[in-house]
């Protein structure tokens, strides 16, 4: 039998059409509780700015709220876009989370701005110059979390030993994670092209560290589950339309599903979106389990990251529960 893997919920904190960000925040908490009951290992939230469909801009603040309504599931950023922030601020924020929820906090890091160039400028960032400092900023963040004495101390944060991850969709992030001896998460749920090359590079060049003695890889999939294939396909149209809108530089709330995606998008848009989501598992529980198993076997990943891009909260809870029932695949939270 193929190996079982722990599962992370990557919640994009979607804001459906006609709803308020406060509704999205309530939904994040409810989905975290569902994931915890279903045996998921972690819940991660991702930093995005200026997006009408995403409510997780203040990632650490939202994680504090999630921690208050859960008991054991790990909490983390998947990820914080480090070039947007001074490393000291991130050390203090996630050191505070570690003080609130000891032993439950992860910190995944990315180097993209998590937004468009205009909004990045409003954040006070120079995308190219800030990205150049990324390796140095990671080193500084590790230093702040260590027990080393320094002139500048992160309080809270000093000695917190919050586990760091590197996130990415390119060979650059894979190479850097290997060099630094950090666990690595690949964004195959929306940018799959370099998946296998990145995993191979990471494993072949990994250098053990105090935090991570051996390579550890996670990779992502989008999941939509329904009783019938036709209904799953209908629910998936929300994601298809959202990504097509992003491709047109349109900024809208998360769209309601439609019965026929061909009436909402042009054929080339459908092809492009589906190519970016080639690893999405969309279908009945049996179909989804088979697709997840195929993905895990092909990549030999150590952990699976799943996102549930669904308009209705009840549908997302249903899908999370269905994955939790896949006992031959999922390694429940210990």
TrEMBL record:
Cellular component GO terms held in the UniProt record = cytosol
What Gene Ontology terms describe what this protein does at the molecular function level?
Answer: oxidoreductase activity, acting on paired donors, with incorporation or reduction of molecular oxygen
Lineage: superkingdom:
Bacteria
**Taking every annotated instance into account, which residue ranges of this chain make up the domain Luciferase-like?**
18-298
Give the family this protein belongs to, as stated in its UniProt record. Answer: To bacterial alkanal monooxygenase alpha and beta chains.
NCBIfam families reported for this sequence: oxido_grp_1
Name the chain's protein: Luciferase-like monooxygenase
